[in-house]
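From the shared-data thread, chain only:
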Amino acid sequence: MSTRQNKVSDLIRGEVSRLLLRELRDPRIGFVTITAASVSPDLRNAWVYVSVLGGDRERQSTLEALNRASGFIRKEVFRNLRLRFSPTIEFRFDDSLERGARIEETLRSIEAERRDAEPADEEE
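Structure, as tokens:
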């Protein structure tokens, strides 16, 4: 990504976080963390990545509610950031935290197996 794309992505991430915290009052939106945002090279499309606390049903419900509110969010981002274009905003689930936890658990089990397989020091 270019420097301009990075700056706009950071601005959008911050503004969407602020809007979720202070403006949106949808009960379907659960405990959400904005993990990242990215924009297309022409700055007309933005993808906001979220992590949602809860099960699959809560995640799906939250993503649907966020994507339904994307028109309002798009309007507010455009108005508050004074961008040249109003980017379309799409929310996507970020599963990197779950993947990281699975990788960490796998590494722990490998380490435990390795320790179990080591011969015990014999005292003479």
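The mean pLDDT is 88.
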